[in-house]
Amino acid sequence: MKKSHADRYRIFISSVQKEFTEERRCLKKYIFNDSLLKLFVSDIFLFEDLPARDQQAEEAYLGKVDACDLYIGLFGNDYGYEDSEGLSPTEREFDRATANGKTRIIFVKGDEDRHRHPKMARLIQKAASQLIRRRFNSLTDLTAAFYAAMVEHLKQSGDLRTLPFDASSCPGATLSDLLQENIKAFLATAKRERNYPLPVNTAREKALIHLNLLEGGLPTHAAVLLFGKNPQRFLPTSEIKCMHFHGVTVRKPIPSYQIYKGTTFELVDQAVDFILSKINRHIGTREYSAKAPATYELPKGAVIEAIVNAVAHRDYTSNASVQVMLFADRLEVWNPGELPPSLTPERLREPHASIPRNPLIAEPLYLARYIEKAGSGTLDMIERCGEAGLPSPVFEERGGLFVTILWRDWLTDEVLSSLGLNERQLLGLKEIKVEKQLTTMHYQDVSGCSRRTAIRDLNEMIEKGIIQRQSRGRSSYYVLSRNHAIITPTVPSDL
């Protein structure tokens, strides 16, 4: 039955509580944070949210099953507490939802059934005889599968007339516009990186169904972007524009300018290679490996993360493209689209939920290990830059765009030699790169000089634009200066 905006869905999440504590909480949070799903869901019931009251537990949770519109079952290895008849609450809830004709969506954790409790294995088989089950191995799998299942349900019920971008069919595209070689290469990578269950030679249509990338038998936008022969034929602005400037502002002529086309995976690889080819790198020794390791001035993992995030979370309905710009003092990655309402640039600096704009694109990127743990990308960038002795990344929203800035170490050997620093100052500079800040007393300890000399050295470094004095209460400390303040470049219109 079609729901009005005022009469939204009530969802009951059923599972063995202890086995799925994290999944239950995260799924509820995901639904209410998703800009689409939250429009259709009014309430999500978890038994642990039930307040203490003078009511039998079984009566309480079965009453919630009666009141729900959608029953979501998470089935794993454990069967859970058994009552006097040998039935667990999970099976009671499933049977009640079945008897009442509720819409049921079942997610089974894991690909192997032999380690499950015998009664749970039988419950899974009971569910399989009545409806389609979906399997998952991680939180990312679960949220992507749930998203796809909900979109399908909303579409079939008539509640969702227009599908989300990544889940809607791509106008004019057919299965012949997808390369089997691309799908095969992805399956091989997903098998190696995440133990994905589909064989490498799985037929194209079956693989796409498994990834929820077909809509009415036609490839979705996500399918075309991930596996298309020529995605830009259908989605011209899905390309990436990469620019390298020798200075710190956008100036023409641009020394190096490339427009990359291809699948989502190819775009990321090409843009990352562009940046790595332009920045300094140090080649180590073969002491521990036959291949000499390369260390880049910008952490490779942070560069990859910034570009993958831009591709995965961009607004593909925008006429703008992702832009990757390398300046003398920083790397900027711009993507169309702003953060979801529940996130802010400040919140990206602390643990947060993953709320992908395009979950059907994000899931294959995760399976191919382009994306790691949910919600950890920005934290990984911050950590990697800190380990490299670089300033912390900057995350900003600018007029409909999301911008990530990774700061380069502008104090190169060449720059330092031109500044005429003494040995004490060089030691202090080395320390501030590691510790991120430096007090006068700390400088004295590092350099072994008097307070008067320390103050003179530090003031000289301020005058030369190397460090800045900061205040915190009654105490002062010093931090590295950036070569230039953050500049918002105006990109020429013909780029």
Explain what you see:
The model is unreliable at 484-495 (pLDDT under 50). Helices cover 38% and strands 17% of the residues. It starts with 8 loop residues before the first strand and ends in a 15-residue tail after the last strand. Strand 1, helix 1 (21-33) and strand 2 (41-45) form a beta-alpha-beta unit. A six-stranded mixed sheet has the order 9-8-12-13-15-14, covered by helices on one side. Strands 2-1-3-4-5 form a five-stranded parallel sheet, sandwiched between helices. It has a two-stranded antiparallel ribbon with strand order 6-7. It contains 17 helices and 17 strands. Helix 2 (57-67) packs parallel to helix 3, helix 5 packs antiparallel against helix 12 (359-367) and helix 10 (264-278) packs antiparallel against helix 11 (300-313). The longest helix has 19 residues, at 139-157. With 495 residues, it is an alpha/beta fold.
